[in-house]
Design a protein that fits this description.
With 99 residues, the protein is α+β, with helices and mostly antiparallel strands. The chain has one domain (9-52, 63-97). Helices cover 38% and strands 20% of the residues. The protein is built from 2 helices and 3 strands, in the order αβββα. The chain has a 3-stranded antiparallel β-sheet, with no helix packed on it. The chain is extended and about 40 Å long.
Length: 99
């Protein structure tokens, strides 16, 4: 039974994480409703460097990077990333930008 016990700190962190996910998902849905030709939400894409797009003759594996796109719209021709910011964080960024 000890494996299931969580400390107050762990419970608070889990609750905060769930609230953050809810806020992000709500924002994502509000933005997605304004887009046309939505083909996907929260999709993962692998990206290749431009010089390695062609198949290499020596069959050496090319390095890739992965990105997560929040909304794929306009039938795949536009990718949208949704970022949330709190009023408190925005205020701090305005203050720091004025320095």
């Amino acid at each position: 039974m000890n494996g299931f016990k969580k400390t107050q700190k762990q419970l608070k962190a889990a609750r905060s994480s769930c609230e953050g996910d809810f806020i992000h998902n709500e924002s994502l849905w509000l933005v997605a409703k304004t887009c046309t030709g939505v083909t996907g939400l929260r999709q993962c894409f692998e990206m290749f460097p431009r010089d390695q797009m062609k198949k290499r003759k020596d069959n050496v594996e090319t390095k890739t990077s992965t990105t997560i796109v929040d909304i794929v719209c306009k039938n795949g021709s536009e990718w949208v990333r949704v970022n949330n910011i709190t009023a408190k964080r925005a205020m701090w960024e305005f203050v720091n930008a004025g320095k």
